[in-house]
Amino acid sequence: MKLEVINIQGQKTGREVNLPDDIFGIEPNEHAVYLAVKQHMANKRQGTHKAKERSELSGSTRKLKRQKGTGTARAGDIKSPVFRGGGRVFGPRPRDYSFKLNKKVRRLARKSALSSKVASGEILVLEGFHFDAPKTKEFVNILSALQLADKKVTFVTADFEKEVYLSSRNLKKCSVVRAGDLSTYAILNTNALVIAEDAVDKIKETFEN
């Protein structure tokens, strides 16, 4: 599979880059994608929720009234869950929501996500570019030239480029990711995936290792 390489002015360079069919041209596995996204979202959860139960409340343990003869239900102390301000029954406790996913499943999910993006025409291959200093205005000009100013965009670079990252940091709908850190969620959570020309080889190396 081949895609045309464009420059930062949005013009065709006349060159093409070869995208391996075993990465960008497979039949997407929706269940693997679901599991990968589920794991990503679960791993982001802090799990610090906590509600006090009956034994954790401060208050008197005196029995409120006698057991029989009142004509109403039996009652223990004021910390009982049936009273206002009492402890909560089976309340949330701190826990770890993360879970393990096999390496082959995660790899299949990323391949499926990339193949879906190619099939829907949401992947662009951009000629390599660099910033001498962080310039958000120049980054916005690139988005406008690519007709992506109003879309959620993810730029994939071969390595971490500090100036490119800082130039895009203030843009709400734009993010920059290293090829080695590209996740299934990052691929799907965007309207356009802009891959730097030199990052294509890094993506190939990621799946070979």
Task: Characterise this structure.
This protein has 209 residues and is α/β, with parallel strands linked by helices. The protein folds into 2 domains: 2-29 and 100-208, Ribosomal protein L4/L1 (Ribosomal Protein L4, Chain: A), CATH 3.40.1370; 46-96, no CATH class. It has helices spanning 21-24, 30-44, 103-119, 136-145, 162-168, 184-188, 199-208, and strands at residues 2-6, 12-18, 123-126, 153-157, 174-178, 192-196. A 6-stranded mixed sheet has the order 2-1-3-6-4-5. The longest helix has 17 residues, at 103-119. The model has no long low-confidence stretch (mean pLDDT 91).
CATH topology of the largest domain: Ribosomal Protein L4, Chain: A
Shape: elongated
User: Largest beta sheet: what is the strand line-up?
Assistant: 2-1-3-6-4-5
Topology pattern, helix = H, strand = E: EEHHHEHEHEHEH
Give the low-confidence spans: none
Number of domains: 2
What are the key terms here?
alpha/beta, 7 helices, 209 residues, 2 domains, 6 strands
Blueprint (SSEs and pairs):
Layout: E1 2-6, E2 12-18, H1 21-24, H2 30-44, H3 103-119, E3 123-126, H4 136-145, E4 153-157, H5 162-168, E5 174-178, H6 184-188, E6 192-196, H7 199-208
Parallel strand pairs: 1-3, 3-6, 4-5, 4-6
Antiparallel strand pairs: 1-2
Helix pairs in contact: 2-3, 4-5
Short description:
With 209 residues, the chain is α/β, with parallel strands linked by helices.
